[in-house]
Amino acid sequence: MIKNLQDTTTLHNGVKMPWFGLGVFKVEEGQELVQAVKNAIKHGYRSVDTAAIYGNETGVGKGILEGIKEAGISRDDLFITSKVWNDDLGYDSTLKAFETSLDKLGLEYLDLYLIHWPVEGKYKEAWRALETLYKAGKVKAIGVSNFQIHHLEDLLKDAEIKPMVNQVELHPRLTQKELLSYCLENDIQLEAWSPLMQGQLLDLPELKVIAEKYNKSIAQIILRWDLQNGIVVIPKSTKEHRIIENANVFDFTLSNEDMKAIDALNQNHRVGPDPDNFDF
């Protein structure tokens, strides 16, 4: 049972990853970003997720360092994730991209480094680079993002180390049940990006009914549903009250009936690109 914001899931290599974190997709460099990261840390978040392509690693790093100081915690208390972008997929280029991210973040190591998209013909070499970084102790866990089952199977044919995490688009309109089962069976932790479908689910009547029943917001209901499904979540917000509200999901449990009602909202509908058909 997940009881608070610092609760963790144990990855297959023994590393502990918080179930709940802050996402910063589409948050531009600047004081708002720095403050959002600081606020999240102040209010008990211990995980922050960024990526090279977001162009905001410098601000995230600043927020982390200031947040650590103000909260009186150590770097080791935090779990920081970044991702290598498609243009840099390749053995040497991925190693170099990692150093660039580390440098921008102002950190000595990352907790999790992911391949952002499964670019055909490129992700295996990039994975080899991630294995090298992992063995060198520069990153505590390695994984992938937006990988479907067939991508994972293909990667596992040659991988020395199995991915610890797969971060994918996942929300009540795209429940990814098959992928979730596959990841559970293979001891790969599934993580949801865009858990609130970029805000598109926040006035869905079916969810409104459930939210009223528990006296919670629709966002809180969705995030709780993720956690009860064993899925790590990283909702994005820059507003302090929303950062607090999003994380206020540890004082109630959804019934099996309500869990099934939310599962039933699935339409296999994506708001982001299709991992089998993207051209970037």
From TrEMBL:
The record marks K83 as: Lowers pKa of active site Tyr. Substrate binds at H116. The active site is at Y54. InterPro entries: AKR, AKR5G, Aldo/ket_reductase_CS, NAD(P)_OxRdtase_dom_sf, NADP_OxRdtase_dom. GO terms for molecular function: oxidoreductase activity. Residues 31-266 form the NADP-dependent oxidoreductase domain. Pfam families: Aldo_ket_red (PF00248). Keywords: Oxidoreductase. PANTHER family: 2,5-DIKETO-D-GLUCONIC ACID REDUCTASE (PTHR43827). Belongs to the aldo/keto reductase family. This is Glyoxal reductase. The lineage of its organism: Bacteria, Bacillati, Bacillota, Bacilli, Bacillales.
